[in-house]
Amino acid sequence: MVGKSKRELAERILELVGGADNVVMATHCITRLRLNLRDDSKVDLEALKGLEGTLGAQVKDGQWQVIIGPQVESVYRELEPLLGSMKLRGEVGVDDDQPELKKSGRVQIFDIISGIFSPIIPALVAGGIIKGILAVFAGFGMDTSAGDWAIFSMISDIPFYFLPFLLAVSCADKFKVNRSLALCVAGSLMYPTIVNAIGTGETPLTLFGFALPIFTYADSVFPVIFGVAGLALVYHAIDKLVPDLFKLVVVPAVSLAIVIPLNLLVLAPIGAWCGIGLANGIVWLFSTLGPIAGFLLGFFMPLIVLFGMHQSTSPIQISNIATLGYDYLLPVSFCHNLAESGAAFGAALRMKDEKLKSAAFTCAFSAFMGISEPALFTVQVPNRTPLYSAMIANGIGGALTVVLGVKCFGFVMPGITSLPVYMDPSGNAWNIIAIVICIALTWVIAMACSFVLWGKSKGSLKAKSEVAA
């Protein structure tokens, strides 16, 4: 998709959602353009679904989602001159006499999570991939902690060690508060006094006679999110009370003076305990239910992705990696993408129309590389049986990841290029062998089921294309 066509696609999308004046806020995740609108009745949903350059469209919790695929960020950038940066950052106000706008623009929990984590995923993926490659080299006996390798080891650690700062920026945009103040909140968690106290076990800071709890906030997720959320509440409350003449001097200073002590004493420790609790909960769930937990998560993963809720697991995955050193959920997501790939490939083998066959093969390759939405929206959902095949195969694959004890040692997008991250840092090759077994079996089962079940459902990709035409 060249630059001109991206601009044309952005312009056409705006036209079909009622124009720029109808857009309150525009954001995006890995594959979807997400729009909050003033008047839903102005949207031509069927035209959006059939628009060339998109993979579908839907409305979820009052938010319009246009599925574009890996090109979504480029299309999103073309929206800036059309909408303005205020709408892209969600800083457009809502009038009190527009109750419908308030309802459609209300931020739901999954939208919050997506808005916070989507902007920082490239940095986390970069660190995870480099860390995985270093683990592969270590498996061949190389010392990756010294010499020329040391700087690459540092690069792989930076996005995770300074995760609170990355989250502070995205949280500031999501909660509509000044980025610099949000970074100050993150900085309080990473201040040398706090960091140095971790090694000694001492509690060097007190507030009103209470010793501040000390946690390792590097790699943490929830402490900074809670802190910036608290900052937003305090900042906006004070901003309403202080006269305009004194806002610049009073509001930032008072906000930090209130929020940082509150965060260090209450919010950040609660966030740290939440992260530890989630990690322990995942361990308990998988150790108690075993393969059943893996099967259920895998079986429903296509539906979770379909409704745009898959990023709700990102904080859990990152928290697991920070707390345990590995994650159980990412291997199931890896199997999911391979299930989508296999199901699309199996369906393509049965298709008669050459254009549709080519599209299905392309979708299969995209899912193989880690982007499953093209296959899900273009092949699986319209034809039904490939969707059922992907669900069955991923359920089996998810159960197998538990049986074989597969772990992911870095936060990555779950595609074939993420394989190095499954290399055990200790150099043991079993984990990467196990994930290869899981994804290969998942792909084969999905492909076979999709091939065998093809035509046993009334839905068809051909019918959809004819309607769109």
TrEMBL record:
The keyword Protein biosynthesis does not apply. The active site is at residue 29. GO terms for biological process: phosphoenolpyruvate-dependent sugar phosphotransferase system; trehalose transport. It is found in: Cell membrane. InterPro entries: Glu_permease_IIB, PTrfase_EIIB_Cys, PTS_EIIC, PTS_EIIC_1, PTS_IIB_1, PTS_Sugar-Specific_Components. Pfam families: PTS_EIIB, PTS_EIIC. One of its GO terms (cellular component) is plasma membrane. GO terms for molecular function: kinase activity; protein-N(PI)-phosphohistidine-sugar phosphotransferase activity; protein-phosphocysteine-trehalose phosphotransferase system transporter activity. The keyword Flavoprotein does not apply. The chain crosses the membrane at residues 112-137, 149-169, 181-200, 220-238, 245-270, 282-309, 391-412, 432-454. Residues 111-465 form the PTS EIIC type-1 domain. CDD domains: PTS_IIB_glc. Residues 7-89 form the PTS EIIB type-1 domain. This is PTS transporter subunit EIIC.
